[in-house]
């Protein structure tokens, strides 16, 4: 086998590979000789099948495997001899003309083909000891706990039917059937039967619940309300709808008591135990959000420290995934690029930049983790697999078996663990200063930054 480099442009490499017909012939004869002792053919004793008959019966099938093995060996040799780190699987271009293929299969012509490669870029690991990061942290205040306990008590209270003809008041629960219409036409997702609505809970769009004050069981009423401008269903955002409402029942809400009984209703010994558990749970949420934000700042800093050529196919694959998600979301919301205040070309450019950032940072984190010899332990991977299986109640064993039998799927579990360990490694090197902020400030998200992450 002879491999000759024919192109070297940026991160792209191309080689011409030639496997002589004589080598193919030798491999074929060896394979057929080995096979001759194993096959059973009527009319011939084991091991006594003539080579001409073996070749006629099994030659093409065996040669297909020989060609595939020769290609694999050539690829490995090219990578090894040239010290290449591949970004993608090699792209092999074999002969396509029928006469050329037949000549190779019959070992009457050399196997000549090209293989295109994309390699990973090389770059120096930057020193992050001078990088300064501000980590936002928030304390779980007594007021926050009081508000949470009040909400829990309100959600846990009992409701009793009001007397016949008695009107609903603030805090009552009204069960309704409704049909929502915009410009006289019912819209998808705008209807429901036997839907409980707690007046004053804010669970419905603004203005809806307030108009149920004073209704009685059996009443029919038209409720007019406007969807918020930032409503999650973009095709409804900012639009005014009329809801034909029929009241099924009205129930008075009991008193929301924050006491030891509340704690016991949640499986705790008393109110203080519930309060402590709540403080711990909220604290975990605060810490997770704090980490998400400081990680994003770290990635922003890394993005400024590195500039190198990116493997074009990796970028294209990342962009295709991002773009597919964007267009699918817009189609579902019935929105256009014009509705978003942009054009398709401008959006493509923006999201290509996001794809390039993700690929660049992925390569940087992988290189840093490799140089720092960061490893994923079996215990860490097992815990991740257990967590994933728990996301599918009743199917845990099927999920477990799937990952155990699919190395690629298991690698997808390993990747985020590796990334978080690399982030920990970098945060330990950078200058991180904590800044105490309010809960509202901690959870304030920058939409642009969220897209880049």
Description:
The chain is an alpha+beta fold and 453 residues long. It folds into 3 domains: 2-118, Alpha-Beta Plaits (2-Layer Sandwich); 158-254, Chitinase A, domain 3 (Roll), CATH 3.10.50.40; 262-452, Orthogonal Bundle (Trigger factor, domain 2). 48% of the residues lie in helices and 19% in strands. Helix 9 (378-390) packs across helix 10 (396-405) and helix 10 (396-405) packs across helix 11 (407-429). The two termini are 46 Å apart.
Concise account of the structure shown:
It comes from Camelimonas lactis. This protein is of the alpha+beta class and 453 residues long.
Structural class: alpha+beta
- DSSP summary: helix tally: 13
Q: Mean of the pLDDT scores?
A: 92
Order of helices and strands: EEHHEHEEHEEEEEHHHHHHHEHH
Find the CATH superfamily of the largest domain.
Trigger factor, C-terminal domain
Helix content: 40-55%
Q: How many domain regions?
A: 3
Second CATH tier, the architecture of the largest domain: Orthogonal Bundle
CATH T-level topology of the largest domain = Trigger factor, domain 2
Which CATH class of the largest domain is shown? Answer: Mainly Alpha
Shape: elongated
| Number of strand segments | 11
Radius of gyration: 33 Å
Give the N-terminus to C-terminus distance in angstroms: 46 Å
